[in-house]
Design a protein that fits this description.
The protein contains nine helices and nine strands. By secondary structure, the protein is α/β, with parallel strands linked by helices.
């Protein structure tokens, strides 16, 4: 007769929220993508590329990790950036494990107020010192780690190079060890909490960041107005909002050349992301001073 008794020796399932915080341009999104194993967050060389909390979910039979990439901590200049800071500060309140990312060139005293909040955390804090591939010798790393240990004495330190995938596996192992026992928060086939349209806007925004200089990329917002998905294809219509007519002209370029370049590059990546052929239409509209208008920030998802 078949024994249907539960296996009391089975390892309990683990599940938890792991929030990634830190200042702009230290490699948070690169680390997140490496840990999740998918291209979830925008990665460019420009600061302030992540504007929202983006969840990437890692599932195995034994655990579920809900990673959360957050905007870089900064002193807000616009209402939009106030919303971005709120996302980062919110990450301190709902995590099971906190991953604070810095790098080997950052001033440890930058944004001291936020760092002081991290130092008071009761949950486990893992301090990732990223970009160690830039260092010349071991003595440099020891000095950097020592200075950070003074600021975050309770944190466990992980020198890494997310770009080179160095020590990321050890970081992941430690995260799994620290996860609390519990049932999954999302379905086991879930990759993220964000809808498909969100990743379309992120890819288009990435191409804008890569193709334009100065203020233009930071004055743009992308909204997907049509996402018509069929079995083998997707028809997408997206609007790029800017704050001034001059920015609209720069975005479009002579005879539409720049907008065409952005569209071509974005379409290729969107097609790869979804595994389908993509027809992408881009339009540019002017929305004066949208970064300081509460109704627009609510519409664009910066204020809940």
């Amino acid at each position: 007769m078949e024994d249907k008794t539960l296996n009391t020796n089975a390892t309990p399932h683990k599940s938890g929220f792991v929030n990634i915080v830190g200042n702009p341009n230290v490699g948070k999104s690169t680390l997140m993508n490496d840990l999740v194993g998918e291209r979830i967050s925008i990665i460019t060389q420009k600061a302030q590329t992540t504007r929202h909390r983006i969840m990437g979910i890692v599932n195995t039979p034994e655990y579920q990790i809900v990673f959360s990439d957050t905007p870089g901590v900064l002193k807000p200049k616009y209402k939009m950036q106030e919303g971005m800071l709120a996302f980062s500060e919110g990450a301190l309140t709902d995590a099971d494990v906190l991953v604070y990312v810095t790098d080997v060139v950052e001033d440890p005293t930058k944004n001291a107020d936020f760092l002081a909040k991290v130092a008071k955390e009761k949950i486990p804090v893992l301090l990732v010192v990223n970009k160690i591939d830039l260092l010349k010798g071991n003595g440099e790393l020891e000095a950097i780690v020592a200075s950070w240990k003074e600021l975050l004495p309770n944190a466990e330190v992980f020198p890494t190079s997310a770009k080179e995938h160095f020590n990321v596996a050890n970081l992941m192992t430690r995260i799994v060890e620290l996860l609390p026992e519990g049932e999954p928060y999302f379905g086991k086939d879930a990759l993220t909490d964000k809808p498909a349209r969100f990743f379309v806007t992120e890819i288009i925004r990435e191409k804008i960041l890569l193709n334009y200089d100065k203020e233009v990329p930071y004055s743009t917002e992308v909204i997907v107005e049509k996402f018509d998905e069929k079995e083998n294809s997707i028809h997408i219509m997206a609007v790029i909002y800017v704050e001034r007519e001059s920015q609209k002209g720069i975005l479009i370029g002579r005879q539409g050349s720049m907008l065409k370049r952005v569209g071509t590059e974005a379409r290729k990546d969107i097609s790869t992301f979804f595994g389908k052929s993509v027809f992408l239409e881009l339009f540019v509209k002017v929305e004066p001073n949208w970064r300081n208008r509460e109704n627009k920030l609510r519409q664009f998802g910066y204020i809940e």
